[in-house]
Design a protein that fits this description.
Helices cover 37% and strands 27% of the residues. The protein is of the alpha/beta class and 127 residues long. The protein has one domain. The longest helix is centred in the middle third of the chain and has 13 residues.
Length: 127
């Protein structure tokens, strides 16, 4: 029988394009953080909301400066097979997303994403 790993596991929650998620009533990062804190009160849990690419990069750099590594990272946002909508002005491919979170050395990355139908996604990009 395997031993249960009871060490604290830091969690990072990234909510991308928070304005759009809020408008669509899909912003769940704060609520997820609250539930995680209740379930794991001794685990470090950080929550980052991004409103632009520059905002996200600034917040990730600040976290990197703390030298905190995250075993688990939850990413919330709009995505498709090609990548993730970081903000209203920036779509990043999956390789780019991986490069942003790689310095935190995650063991797990969980994606909570909204996938629009192809015709709706195309219409939104054109408008």
């Amino acid at each position: 029988m395997k031993k249960i790993d009871r060490r604290r596991k830091p969690l990072l929650i990234l909510e991308c394009d928070s304005d759009k998620l809020t408008q669509q009533n899909l912003a769940m990062g704060g609520e997820l953080r609250s539930h995680a804190k209740l379930a794991f009160p001794r685990n470090p849990i950080d929550f980052v909301q991004s409103y632009s690419e520059a905002d996200l990069l600034e917040k990730l750099v600040a976290l990197l400066e703390t030298k905190q590594l995250y075993k688990n990272i939850v990413i919330i946002g709009h995505s498709n097979r090609s990548g993730l909508q970081i903000s209203a002005d920036r779509f990043n491919n999956w390789e780019g997303v991986a490069n942003w979170i790689k310095p935190f050395e995650p063991h797990r990355v969980i994606l909570l994403a909204v996938l629009l139908p192809v015709n709706q996604a195309v219409a939104e990009r054109v408008i």
